[in-house]
Design brief:
Layout (H helix, E strand, L loop, with lengths): L2 H22 L3 H11 L12 H4 L7 H22 L1 H22 L9 H14 L4 E4 L2 E4 H17 L8 H19 L3 H10 L5 H8 L8 H17 L6 H15 L4
Antiparallel strand pairs: 1-2
Helix pairs in contact: 1-4, 4-5, 4-6, 5-6, 5-8, 6-8, 7-8, 10-12
Length: 263
């Protein structure tokens, strides 16, 4: 596990154990008073803005926290390693907060707990970089990008339809929306910087692509293999013009190794 995934899981488990201890302390009035301070009731956000964060560390039961933390364990480490710890935490918190804000608009009187919005934001971020990875959603194998679409449709139906009254559908949708906006903010660059980067970047040709496609993927280290797959997937979806100077240098390094004669 990466550092921030470990810390977030530890914090959630610690809070859940504290909830269980408080429930067994037979002091329901004190427990209720504490929960009212931490649970997200969207209409109270102006008076208790901290609940936009604290609600994501509370869970309604063992299965609730188990599946949330399992999802974070599956999708979080690779995304944190790719983004950096600070950006990963930013995406996680932004997704959770966006889930609370969207709930404020559509379900202002609900009482919401759980990290699902933040976790789904992490899942969206994962799908942004590795959309074709296979996962099992309700024992059905599918690509991550397909799973995101399916869950979005189900939450739209549940939120605006009649299904899942006990599920915070708009918190889930807000998690996806928050992750989308956060990624757009990270990707944003002033036009001048983009223009200067294009001037500095060497032109990528079809010959370069042919040379890179001959790199022997199976002989790369696992970390380099993942980066190779990511760049080639990016070329497939965004075109060869999307390759950055750093990515070109990475591919050139291994294509030169593959073409050099052995001693």
């Amino acid at each position: 596990m990466t550092p921030w995934v470990r810390r977030i899981i530890f914090a959630n488990v610690a809070v859940f154990l504290a909830q269980m201890f408080a429930e067994r302390a037979r002091d329901p009035q004190s427990l209720d008073a504490i929960m009212q301070l931490l649970v997200l009731v969207p209409r109270n956000i102006p008076y208790r803005p901290w609940t936009l964060v604290t609600y994501a560390f509370l869970h309604a039961g063992f299965s609730h926290i188990f599946f949330n933390m399992l999802s974070l364990y599956i999708f979080g480490p690779r995304l944190e390693a790719h983004l950096s710890g600070g950006r990963f935490v930013g995406l996680y918190l932004t997704s959770g907060i966006a889930g609370g804000l969207l709930s404020w608009v559509f379900t202002p009187n609900a009482q919401i707990v759980g990290a699902s919005g933040a976790i789904l934001g992490v899942m969206f971020g994962y799908a942004r970089y590795w959309p074709r990875d296979q996962i099992f959603l309700w024992v059905v194998p599918m690509q991550v990008r397909v799973a995101v679409v399916v869950m979005t449709v189900l939450d739209l139906f549940g939120g605006f339809g009649s299904g899942g009254a006990n599920v915070a559908h708009f918190a889930h949708l807000g998690g996806f929306a928050g992750a989308f906006l956060y990624r757009r903010a990270l990707d944003f660059r002033p036009r001048q910087r983009k223009f200067e980067a294009k001037l500095r970047a060497p032109r990528v040709s079809r010959d370069d692509l042919d040379r890179w496609s001959k790199i022997q993927r199976d002989q790369l280290h696992e970390v380099n293999r993942e980066e190779f797959d990511r760049i080639m997937q990016k070329i497939e979806t965004e075109g060869i013009g999307s390759v950055t100077p750093r990515e070109r240098s990475f591919l050139d390094n291994f294509s030169e190794r593959a073409s050099s004669p052995s001693a």
